[in-house]
Write a structure and sequence with these properties.
577 residues; 3-stranded antiparallel β-sheet; elongated
Length: 577
């Protein structure tokens, strides 16, 4: 069999006939291949000999592969199998015929808020599936998000950052976590959790909308310093058409403290869906105006000298685009940043036209100090005998069949244990289903509340109040409870003004009550005057609140209406020509 072009050493790996080399870096090489039995195309990733010869890495690799085999989701690039041939470890992934979001950004694609939210929801679905299996991605970024021909977003390279992050043989320039998108705790070398992935997702959403990452700097240390110690800027600073609801969600995801971020990928997906639903149901005039605004492409402001981050030296990347920063084992090495053109092979599960030199090496291949180009550590003096190479390849389907057969062939004494395990799984499933069924109830009530508020239809204020009270009673710890309390105050402050107007016809009102009634009358015709009147009411009578319940209520509702008018007036000023 003739060897493929640009692949002088490999023409067959397991059942796959190698077509061509589509990527290479310090970690190894990536090939596109075809299964000779099924005709399916795949991406085959062959680890560098330096990694395959390291016993510690080999053990971690096999353990991590076993974990990744559990991931089966439409939004995750699927692992098809792994094997070893002539001492080389490799694994096979689904080949996605599409571009990454990073490539789309560099090609000039402008993401509006609606498309960004939809992409984020798909990523949340992938993350929930992974987190439920105890798998944290650790390197979520636009380059690892692929758009398939059917417009489905697929997340690739789960666990790769974990594998190479713990290796003393990590190649210089290898992506162990990209600084533009890694969480603050990851930048400090602390333990990561599922909320670290959610931070990275927030950074990805920010980048799609603003066309630049949240933090910029003239060097890698500056970026990481800002990541650890500075608050993330508002995305509306760079993309003013983004709704405030989405701005708040992204801001929460970019919180420094993990426990201040959105709790889970499921909660985040539900909030994004509720936001989209609420914004879609605004009144016709607002929707038409918003549609006109969102349709305009967002143009990021010209970066300052301090905000100019790493510019790619690769001829494949536009020189005006900001690229992710490579972090080598959390060591901030400017020499690597300047000298290493090493590219990550993380996005090589898609079909590309990457250029590979005649000797089979891609431009920019570099290895860390003490490791030669053939992957053998120069500093080692002890010669270790390696066992004869073992050739094997195991597909996911074959592995599952083997496990099923083992269960069938087990002695009877183990069957009782299987029953216990099965009953436990059923119990967990029942509890999980019960919890899942409860969540949509919160989403449904919330959506009804938001729809009634957004459309401005007071179909029945009492019905709306019942929805609000039901939500706050059943879901007091929900992330949206504070927002719902605001809607409750909207209704109560309106009711209070109406009650005082009726009461004023029969008896004398307190001075603070008369001022509240007058201010509420001016809201529609003279909002600025009403706002000033409400402010003066609070200032003049705040000291009397403790002495009178009637005064306290007026001050409470006046403060709320003052905030609403302030927001409305501020919005008009920003949108006025």
């Amino acid at each position: 069999m003739s060897k493929p072009k640009n692949s002088p050493m490999i023409d067959q790996l397991g059942p796959y006939r190698i077509d061509k080399q589509i990527g290479r870096g310090g970690m190894g090489s990536v090939y596109s291949g075809v299964d000779e039995e099924t005709g399916e195309k795949a991406a085959i990733k062959v680890l560098a000999v330096a990694f395959a010869d390291d016993p510690g890495f080999r053990s971690r690799f096999l353990t991590e592969i076993e974990t990744l085999k559990q991931l089966r989701h439409q939004n995750i690039v699927r692992l098809r199998g792994d094997g070893e041939q002539d001492g080389q470890l490799f694994y096979v992934m689904e080949l996605v015929e599409g571009r990454s979001l990073q490539e789309e950004l560099q090609a000039g694609h402008h993401y509006d808020w609606n498309e960004t939210a939809e992409i984020a929801i798909q990523i949340c679905q992938a993350l929930k599936h992974a987190h439920d299996h105890g798998v944290i991605h650790r390197d979520l970024k636009p380059a690892n998000l692929l758009r398939a021909p059917d417009n489905q977003i697929k997340l690739t390279d789960f666990g790769i950052a974990k594998l190479f992050g713990g290796s003393h043989m990590t190649a210089a320039g290898s992506v162990v976590g990209t600084a533009d998108f890694m969480s603050p705790e990851q930048a400090e070398g602390l333990g990561v959790t599922h909320r670290s992935d959610l931070y990275s997702l927030g950074a990805v959403m920010f980048t799609l909308l603003a066309r630049r990452p949240p933090f910029g700097g003239a060097s890698l240390p500056q970026v990481v310093h800002k990541l650890r110690f500075e608050e993330a800027p508002s995305v509306r600073r760079f993309a003013p058409e983004v709704p405030t609801e989405l701005e708040q969600i992204i801001g929460q995801l970019l919180s420094k403290k993990p426990d201040e971020r959105v709790a889970t990928a499921l909660v985040l997906a539900n909030r994004l869906r509720a936001m989209k639903h609420g914004l879609a149901n605004r009144n016709t005039s607002d929707a038409a105006s918003a549609e006109g605004d969102f349709a305009k492409p967002s143009v990021a402001p010209a970066p300052t000298d301090e905000e100019v981050t790493r510019i790619s030296n690769s001829s494949q990347m536009p020189n005006t685009e900001l690229l992710p920063t490579a972090v080598d084992d959390f060591e901030l090495r400017e020499d690597v940043q300047r000298e290493s053109g090493a590219e990550s092979w993380n996005d090589a599960t898609r079909a590309t036209g990457d250029e590979v030199s005649e000797d089979g090496r891609s431009r920019g291949d570099h290895f860390s100090e003490g490791v030669s180009s053939d992957g053998v550590s120069k500093s080692r003096k002890t010669i270790v005998e390696t066992p004869p190479p073992v050739n094997r390849f195991t597909t996911i389907e074959a592995e599952e069949h083997r496990r099923r057969q083992e269960i069938i062939d087990r002695p009877a004494k183990w069957r009782e244990a299987i029953k216990v395990v099965t009953m436990t799984i059923v119990l967990v499933a029942i509890v999980t289903i019960s919890w899942v069924l409860m969540r949509p109830s919160a989403d449904r009530i919330y959506s009804e509340i938001v729809k009634s508020q957004a459309t401005g239809q007071s179909d029945d204020a009492r019905k709306q109040m019942k929805r609000i009270e039901k939500f706050l009673e059943k879901f007091p710890d929900d992330d949206r409870a504070r927002e719902v309390v605001g809607y409750q105050l909207d209704i109560l402050s309106e009711w209070h003004a109406t009650r005082l107007r009726v009461q004023g016809r029969q008896t004398t009102l307190l001075p603070v009550e008369e001022k509240y009634v007058q201010a509420m009358k001016l809201r529609e015709s003279q909002p600025a005057v009403a706002r000033e009147a409400l402010l003066n009411l609070v200032r003049d009578h705040e000291s009397e609140a403790a002495e009178s319940e009637r005064t306290r209520l007026c001050i409470k509702y006046a403060s709320h209406q003052f905030s609403l008018l302030s927001d409305a007036i501020g919005t008009r000023r920003r949108t006025s020509p």
